[in-house]
Amino acid sequence: MFPGVVALDDVDFDLRRGEVHALLGANGAGKSTLIKIVAGLYQADAGEIRIDGRPVELRDTETARGLGVSVIYQEPALVPNLSVAENLFLGRELLTPLGLVDWRRTRAEARRLLDRLGIEIASDARISSLSVGQRQLVEIAKALDIEAKLLILDEPTASLSQGEAERLFALIRRLAQSGVGIVYVSHRLEEIASLVSRVTILRDGRSVGTYPVDRLDRRKVVALITGDERASVKGTGKAGRVIGEVLLELRRLGRLNEFDDISFTLRRGEILVLTGLVGAGRTELLETIFGARAAGTGEIRVGGRSVAFTSPRDAIRNGIALLPEDRRGQGVAVVMPVFQNITLASLGRFVRRCFLRLREEQQHASRMIRNLAIKTPSPFLRAGLLSGGNQQKLVLAKWLSTQADIFLLDEPTQGVDVGAKQEIYRLIREIAAAGKGVLVVSSDLEEVLEIGDRILALRQGRIVGAFINDNLAPARLVDAITHGHAT
Q1: Which CATH homologous superfamily contains domain 2-81+126-226?
Q2: Which of 21, 75, 302, 465 shows the smallest number of beta carbons within 10 Å?
Q3: Global pTM value
Q4: Which helix (H) or strand (E) holds 47?
């Protein structure tokens, strides 16, 4: 048993040996704080933590690791240019009697560890050559090499394909059977039922309760997370929107080894969703439209004119905005304050006679914070301290501050909670209702069916199905993206 009473505004939480226990809650509910207290990154102000029935003081991460606590965070912590073996033993290198790195032993121990976990990855492979799912498995191997008793997984499937996620679930089940206690943090409610035994839900820093998973359904979980018994997972569809003229047109667009023969149109007031498995070429297509990649063949037309963008600057000048999949790496300037992030792409509108009108800039940022309900204690707070959902809204605020007519949104709700998802869906519909065109890339089937007016299925770089979202059967989409044809 690993009972623990962790002070997070009177939060009680316990984890049993060999149990997979889900920790759910909205962004800002306190999940990350709780994880970091258990990991030794933060110290609790009150209460106690017990491991193996004994009170412990987790002063730092080394103390936590020494007690068998291991955490795998959502943001990767591997060095891309090093091998799998080098990453597994980074900071605790295996040395010869002369004090040199014992490479033969390092590779052998890495292979032993990977084999024990059933991970079929070469120990000398560079991390940069691995898929996101393979990197996640390496993270788990690294975490478990300390003989972890308690493993915390923070959004482990946020960037994984269905196949990669299934392999991860199989490994999690094997670890639980071996006696490892696992805390599983996720916003993907569909994963919970078959994987965990109990669910603890946090809201506003307090524990709402712990429940056996078989006593919960999706509606109940959403209501507990949001505090709204009327919470619904369905949106308002096309209400109040008029589909207008073509804003964006692709004609047989292609790029070597990424996608080929892509043709479609995006109209004013329309939400067009592009879905497919990881590796289907979705992100590469959006980045090509945005000028971050050069098209090899075909044509892009904006407002009826053929364009050839050589950089994102060209795309922005032509009214195109991109919300990238990697929001922290590409969408948000994490060390800059919230208000400067909002005006980053539209700074020129606040310049008069070579001087920046700081007051106007801050007033505009404050309006956007109110209009988009961005939760921040201050517009001067560093953007990196916002929750994931609020960072997504911050990127939307940045582009809504420009003259963009075409919005490219790559996995806009990845890693955000149910409540924040509904807020982002509302914003997407409002953007479309304002006469903009919205092209969304999403791998979340429920999301695809929730927001899309039309849906394009992409498989191995080609469009294999086009659907009007009118009582569309999910099985038709799944068949298209997995088998290449729509029934």
Answers
A1: P-loop containing nucleotide triphosphate hydrolases (3.40.50.300)
A2: 75
A3: 0.62
A4: strand 47-51
